[in-house]
Amino acid sequence: MKNLKSFFTGVLLTILIITLITTVFAEQISKAITAVYRDIKITIDGEEIIPKDANGKIVEPFIVDGTTYLPVRAISEAVGYDVKWDDETNTVILTEKLAEPLDNPAKISIKSKEYSTDLRKLDLSIMELTNADIEPLKYMTNLADLDLMGNRISDISVLARLTNLESLMLDYNQINDINILAELTNLTDLYIWHNLMLTSEIEELREILPNTSVVQYQIDNYRLLD
Q1: What is the sign of the dihedral through the CA atoms of 109, 114, 118 and 119?
Q2: Contacts of 217 by beta carbon, 8 Å cutoff, 6+ apart
Q3: I need a labelling partner for 143 at 20 to 30 A (CA). Which of 11, 46, 107, 207 fits?
Q4: Residue 179 zone, left/alpha/beta (φ > 0; ψ -120 to 50; rest)
Q5: What is the DSSP secondary structure assignment for residue 101, as one 8-state letter?
Q6: Do strands 42-44 and 31-37 pair parallel, antiparallel, or not at all (unpaired)?
């Protein structure tokens, strides 16, 4: 690959010779292209990433004929995929990275109080808990009954690993997204009175978890109802 770069009014234009590998009757063809470099930035969920190749070298995105080209390795790895190249078939292979299992500690600490991770039932109601306070709950994978009523919780994504939960009390919090509960297929009783979900969101959850009884729910006027 041969790069010739020069600046024009703040925009870096590059004439780039790139070998494009294309299978045509078992032959390879090369094509000369004009690539435009404009200091293109990439953000994922608001966080900027610096694209790099397998050797850690920065790879700059570019534009050809109005189409922006991004390095597949950097983007894929940033969203949780491994990347491999099959030279025999000229194929880029993406596979989802498997989350590494967490080593559960013997105890967790919430608000300076310790709880055994062997517990099957846990009452954390009316403790003014925040999202950060309940982060250690991800280790409580043996729980079948959890009471988080009357706290200041808005994000319950930490509960996704608690797949043994059968009863979950979330009344009087600030929760506005309950999609994560779709992972809790053993859930039979869900209490979500006085939170911030829309009626449609609750009904969608009912369809996903038909065996779950959504008990005593009420939608407050914190958000516009559908």
Answers
A1: negative
A2: 191, 192, 193, 202
A3: 207
A4: alpha
A5: P
A6: unpaired
Class of domain 107-215: alpha beta
Phi and psi of 22, rounded to 5°? -135, 135
Burial class (CB in 10 A: 0-12, 13-18, 19+), 137: buried
Is the Cβ–Cβ distance between 94 and 75 less than 8 Å? no
Q: What's the full length of the chain, in residues?
A: 226
Domain residue limits, the chain: 2-96, 107-215
pTM given for the model: 0.52
Look at the alpha carbons of 209, 213, 218, 220 in this order and tell me if their dihedral is positive or negative: negative
Parallel, antiparallel, or unpaired for β 11-18 and 47-49?
unpaired
Residue 116 carries which side chain, given as an amino acid letter? S
110's enclosing H/E stretch is strand 107-110
At 1-46, the pLDDT tens digits run 333 333 332 333 333 333 333 444 445 677 888 888 898 988 887 8
Mean of per-residue pLDDT scores for the chain: 78
- The residue type found at 77 is E
- Winning range, highest mean pLDDT, from 21-35, 173-187, 207-221: 173-187
Q: Kindly state the DSSP code that residue 67 receives in the 8-state scheme.
A: E
What single letter denotes the amino acid at residue 201? Answer: E
In angstroms, the CA 69 to CA 130 distance is: 42
Tell me, rounded to whole angstroms, the distance of Cα 209 from its chain centroid. 22
Amino acid symbol at 85: W
165: left (phi over 0), alpha (psi -120 to 50) or beta: beta
**Pick from 172, 185, 179, 170: nearest CA to 198:** 179
